[in-house]
Structures are given as C-alpha cells and as structure tokens.
C-alpha cells in the first residue's frame, strides 16, 4: 500500500529506482479514536541502500471528500488498525495537536516535542500544507507559524535547525525566528545515535514574497516591453533597467544580506583555511558528479568538455582559501523579501547529498554561484514553460533573458562584495566552476523530479559553456 503511494509524492527522493523493500521502522500512536493519528518512520530500501521517510498517518472509518486525494489505502484488521489511511498533513484536525505538544514539550514514546528557549507557542491554530514547490511538507498555522516536516530523515540534528539555532545565537536578523521542533530519540530505527530532527516550527513570514516570484514578475515585465523594429531588435532593447519592475536594486540588497549571513555563519561555526591543493579533491568530486549525470542525461554530454575545462582551472588555483559553513542549496526560492529586508530559508543543503557533505565547510562563493544560477533560471523559465513561443520570438526572448540575468547577476555580486563578502570578480575561475557544478546538479535534479523543467538548466548551460 505505502510502496505504491510513496513514489507519487513530490517529496520522495527515490523516484529514479524501484523500491526493493519497505517496512515500518517506528510507529507511534499520537491520537487514539476517530480520527486516529500515527507517526511512522518508513525504512525504504532502493538499490541496496535504506533511507528513512517520515509520514503522519491519519486513520478514519469514513474518509470525507476533502481528504480522498490524500488516501494511502484501506487498512484491515490484520494491522491491528482498521479504516482509511491517509496523509494526515492534509487534515487540520490532526495537525493542531502538533502545536499543543510542542508548547507542552510532550514526550510520546520516542517522539520529543521541543519549545525554543524563551518562546511561547499558540495552540489554537490548525495547520494546512503550503502549496509551495518543495522537498518537504510545510504546514502553515494561521499567520503565525510554519512547521516544516522533514520527509527524508538523516541522522542527527537537521542542518536547518542546527544553523537557524546558531544564527539566532549569533544575532542574525536575516532568518525567521525558531519557535520549536520535534525530534525522534535514538533507537532501533537505524538512523544513528543522536536524536533525529523530524520537524521545525518557525515564524511564518506572512507579508513576505519569495525571491523566485518577485524575480519572475520582473522578467515578465521585461519580456512584455515592445521590441523596437528590425532583426537585431532584442539586441538594442537590452536595458531591463528601463522596464517596469526592475529587480536590480533587490538583487543588490540580496547580495548584501547574503554576505551578512555568511559573516554570521563564519562567526557561529568558524572558518578553516584550506590550501588551494585541496581544490584538487573538490574538482575530482565535481568531475564525478559530471560523469554520473552525463551517463543519465545524454543532453549534457556535448557540454562536458567545456565543463571539465572549467573544473581543471580550479585545480590550478594558488594560495589559501577560507572555507566555512554555507547555505549549500542557495536559490531564489530560498529567500523571502519581507517589509524590512531579505530573509534566508532552508539551510538543509542539497537534498540529494549525504548529510556529512551538506555540513562540510565550503567556499562562500558556492552560494553566490547558486544564486547566479537562479537568476539564469528565472530569466529562462517563462520561455521554457510557454510551449507556444514561435522559434523567432524565442531567440529574441533568449537575448532578453540574457540581458535580465546579466543585470541582476552584476547587481547581486556588487551588493555581496560591498557588504564584505569575497569579491566574485576577483575569483572568476572558481565562481565559474561552482556555477557549472550547480548546473550539472540541477540537470540531474530536473531529470529526476521535474523532467518538463529540464530545458531550463540546459538552455542556460548552452550560454554558460559558450
Ligand atoms: N518561515 C516562512 N514563512 C513563510 N513562507 C515560508 C517560510 N519558510 C518557507 N516558506 C515558503 O516555503 C517554501 C519552501 O520552503 P523550504 O524551507 O525551502 O522547503 P523545502 O526544504 O521543503 O524545499 C519557500 O520557498 C517559501 O516560499
Ligand atoms: O527543495 P529545495 O528548495 O531544497 O531545492 C531543490 O529544489 C529546487 C526547486 O524547487 C531546485 O532549484 C532549482 O529550481 C529553482 C526554481 O524552482 C531555481 O530557482 C534554482 O536556481 C534551481 O536550482 C534546487 O536545485 C533543489 O535542490
């Protein structure tokens, strides 16, 4: 039953290989009666390796219409539970108790509910899942909280919680306040010897808009500008700054906020000076990823030589480089513009990477490269997602896309350097290698999770590889 349902979930990370075995690692009853609520950790074996996923299982004798699309299956007496099983994240009646448990710091079996020091938690709100495109499931409680249920579990404290707590202590004001979290005590579930973070309750940024939406609005405005006549029209209409909805001032502020968070991360976790020779290992890792992705996605292969050449340049770097804790999966969907400035979200790192890799110190320009890639994505998303663009118009729009990306990349880098981050212009080879590495990651990510988006990173790669 669960094995059929799991691969259809947006947050399931193993869509590219069959499930060999699925068993319930831990099951904790959180609510008896009608509806019932059970917390499950699923042990899922694929390609010989076992991953752990979290599910809140609701059980009702009769399933109301509004919950039917979230049904997992019918439980019979054999399991000791009878009724319709469904994903309880979609049932407000079953999400409300999570707040009450965090407020009270309940301990139920291996589940420990925590409240952040010095905060109170309201218990009168129902949670409904966010419709945002994401790798986990976030519940929004009124206009007060956002509770992120981590779907794929990793040993120990989740980096998102770890970093948010550390940045709070460092006095960083570019993150949402942490109110509480839920953890699973170490036990026989195979996820390790430390408590495993299951959920993070943060302040809900109610008046904020995410960077991706803001950037797309700006691109839309720019594309809507009438083109001057003539075959080279788009080349002459190359000033997105003159169009309504220009994003450059925001991009610059975002660059500054990024540098400030990097400074706070360095304070909180320290800086390691790394000899440039260490970059050989870094380049080797980049090449390994390239080989694996080129094997799986043939469209990447023609660009492989240019990408390898960029990685080789990194190996030639001399001197010492500052490595530190970074965001790790930085893009426009991970930042929100509030009334007062930019807030950074989701310090979990790239979902496909191993936990140790996500925590490993890196050069801060890796995040800068991530955001630069995101400008490229935003610039080309509308072209790739509109199947009706005529070929001639598509070429002109590609030129406009380039102009928009260029303007906002430059503004972001200027803001980052002015606020004290390592100057991107002074590390062009390193930055280019990080951008290629991220593009390769994105191609695998899209091929696995959103194949219809694959043209977006491929188009921008054509431009980057020149
Ligand atoms: N504290 C918050 N307040 C309001 N919206 C948020 C908050 N945190 C995240 N979001 C929204 O939810 C989206 C997904 O959040 P994120 O933490 O990146 O989840 P995931 O790790 O599952 O991708 C973000 O792009 C943003 O739009
Ligand atoms: O789920 P996460 O936010 O942790 O990150 C994963 O999903 C992202 C998409 O939701 C993906 O980002 C890519 O698409 C974005 C547009 O949706 C774009 O702004 C990014 O630049 C691009 O990398 C991210 O790579 C992935 O790890």
Features:
466 residues; alpha+beta; Phosphorylase Kinase, domain 1; Aminoglycoside 3'-phosphotransferase, Chain: A, domain 2; 3 domains; 39% helix; globular; binds adenosine-5'-diphosphate; binds ligand LMANGFYV
- What are the bound molecules? adenosine-5'-diphosphate, the ligand O=P(O)(O)O[C@H]1O[C@H](CO)[C@@H](O[C@H]2O[C@H](CO)[C@@H](O)[C@H](O)[C@H]2O)[C@H](O)[C@H]1O
Question: Could you give the distance between the termini?
Answer: 49 Å
Unreliable stretches (pLDDT < 50, length at least 5) are none
CATH topology value of the largest domain: Aminoglycoside 3'-phosphotransferase, Chain: A, domain 2
Main-sheet strand order equals 6-7-12-13-10-9-8
Overall average residue pLDDT: 91
Shape: globular
Describe this structure in words.
With 466 residues, the protein is of the alpha+beta class. It has three domains: 2-87, no CATH class; 92-203, Phosphorylase Kinase, domain 1, CATH 3.30.200; 209-464, Aminoglycoside phosphotransferase (APH), C-terminal lobe (Aminoglycoside 3'-phosphotransferase, Chain: A, domain 2). 39% of the residues lie in helices and 21% in strands. It has helices at 2-5, 92-104, 159-169, 211-224, 233-236, 248-269, 279-296, 304-315, 355-359, 365-385, 391-418, 428-449, 455-464, and strands at residues 21-31, 36-46, 49-60, 71-75, 83-87, 107-108, 111-115, 127-129, 137-141, 145-149, 152-153, 178-184, 196-203, 209-210, 271-275, 320-324, 335-337, 342-344. The strands form four sheets. A seven-stranded antiparallel beta sheet has the order 6-7-12-13-10-9-8, with helices on both faces. Strands 1, 2, 3, 4, 5 and 11 form a six-stranded antiparallel beta sheet that branches. The radius of gyration is 23 Å and the shape is globular. The protein starts with a helix and ends with a helix. The relative contact order is 0.10. It binds adenosine-5'-diphosphate and ligand LMANGFYV. The site of adenosine-5'-diphosphate has 21 residues, from strand 10 and strand 13.
């Amino acid at each position: 039953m669960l094995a059929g349902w799991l691969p259809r979930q947006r947050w399931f990370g193993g869509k590219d290989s069959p499930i060999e075995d699925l068993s319930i690692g831990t099951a904790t009853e959180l609510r008896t009666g009608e509806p019932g609520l059970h917390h499950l950790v699923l042990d899922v074996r694929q390609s010989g390796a076992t991953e752990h996923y979290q599910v809140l299982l609701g059980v009702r004798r009769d399933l109301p219409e509004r919950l039917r699309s979230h049904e997992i299956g019918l439980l019979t007496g054999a399991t000791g539970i009878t009724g319709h099983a469904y994903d309880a994240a979609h049932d407000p009646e079953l999400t409300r108790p999570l707040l009450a448990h965090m407020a009270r710091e309940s301990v139920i079996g291996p589940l420990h509910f925590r409240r952040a020091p010095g905060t109170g938690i309201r218990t009168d709100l129902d949670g409904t899942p966010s419709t945002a495109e994401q790798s986990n499931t976030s519940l929004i409680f009124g206009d007060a909280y956002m509770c992120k249920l981590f779907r794929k579990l990793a040993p120990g404290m989740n980096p998102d919680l770890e970093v948010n707590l550390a940045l709070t202590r460092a006095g960083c004001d570019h993150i949402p306040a942490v109110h509480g979290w839920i953890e699973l005590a170490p036990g026989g579930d195979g996820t390790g010897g430390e408590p495993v973070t299951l959920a993070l309750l943060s302040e809900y940024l109610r008046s904020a808009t995410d960077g991706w939406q803001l950037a797309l609005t700006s691109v839309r405005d720019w594309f809507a500008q009438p083109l001057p006549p003539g075959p080279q029209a788009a080349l002459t209409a190359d000033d997105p700054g003159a169009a309504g909805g220009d994003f450059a001032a925001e991009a610059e502020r975002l660059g500054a906020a990024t540098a400030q968070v990097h400074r706070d991360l360095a304070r909180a976790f320290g800086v390691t000076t790394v000899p440039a020779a260490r970059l050989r290992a870094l380049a080797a890792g980049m090449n390994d990823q390239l080989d694996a992705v080129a094997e799986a996605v043939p469209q990447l292969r023609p660009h492989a030589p240019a990408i390898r050449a960029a990685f080789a340049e990194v190996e030639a770097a001399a001197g010492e480089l500052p490595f530190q804790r970074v965001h790790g999966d930085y893009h426009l969907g991970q930042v929100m513009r509030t009334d007062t400035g930019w807030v950074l979200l989701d310090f979990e790192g790239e979902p496909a990477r191993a936990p140790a890799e996500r925590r490993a110190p890196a050069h801060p320009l890796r995040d800068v490269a991530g955001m630069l890639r995101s400008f490229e994505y935003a610039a080309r998303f509308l072209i790739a997602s509109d199947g009706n663009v005529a070929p001639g118009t598509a070429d002109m729009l590609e030129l406009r896309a380039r102009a928009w990306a260029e303007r906002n990349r430059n503004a972001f880098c200027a803001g980052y350097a002015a606020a004290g981050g390592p100057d991107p212009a002074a590390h062009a080879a390193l930055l280019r290698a990080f951008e290629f590495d991220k593009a390769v990651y994105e191609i695998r990510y899209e091929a696995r999770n959103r194949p219809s988006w694959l043209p977006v990173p491929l188009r921008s790669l054509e431009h980057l590889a020149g």
